[in-house]
Structure prediction request, 268 residues.
Amino acid sequence: MTAPQIPADYEAWRQSRWEEVAGANGKAKVAANAKITDPGPHTLPGIPGEWRTTEAGDLTVTANTADGVQVAGSLVDGTSPVPSGSSLEFPGNRVGFASGVDGSYGLVVMDQHRLEHTGLTGIDTFPYDPAWVFESQYRAAPEGRRIEVPRLTSPRSTEAILAPVDLAVTINDTEYVLAVLQDFPGQRLVIFTDETNGDSTPTIGRWLVLPLLEPGSTLTLDFNKATLSHHHLNPDVFVCPLSPPGNHLPMRIEVGESALIHAATGQS
Prediction:
């Protein structure tokens, strides 16, 4: 039996996916992150400084010189504005950035040595299979719909997450309608579970990252591009949502990512 030809765009996607995980700003290097949407003060575990938003909706950080916090190359002693896009530096060769506007910001701190410390060397995947590529369609959801979804906090919590559209896909002559989450602006996800969870893939399911398109749009759904949740990269930082009710596919989907690979153990 001849192995299926692997499309060049899939190979390119695998490379870009590893860059997303392990590149210069890879998610495996994230030491802390936070969403700041109220005045605060906010602190990040292990990261110096107190973060606040002003009445005007600007972001600030308060620290003293001993904390070693720098904003745009200047050491903070007191309270400093943090313009969106500013470079941040912290002790231990950690760097960060903040982005946002009008009182809503994301703050990310990277540790360039974290990949080395964790021993992450790759992502294990099932063999590519063209049979798991389908045409699908976005369907309109009620305006402003939110779905109560568990989140991987400790202890476990739930959150009503924006779910702007559904995704309809037909597999083996059966139509499945999956809720699409938009946990962050500009990012749409189908978080799904299937019959591989708990043995050859993680119990918490996997992700399909989708484009921003209008209801009624058709799109190619490639389960070969199913990814592991960011939660596996750093459980303390990435408190990701779980699969919404109804997003279980009653079959074994043996394509896509299956596990992280670590140098010490061979596999996560």
Observations:
- The chain has two domains: 8-21+120-262, 27-111.
- The first strand starts at residue 30 and ends at 36.
- The radius of gyration is 20 Å.
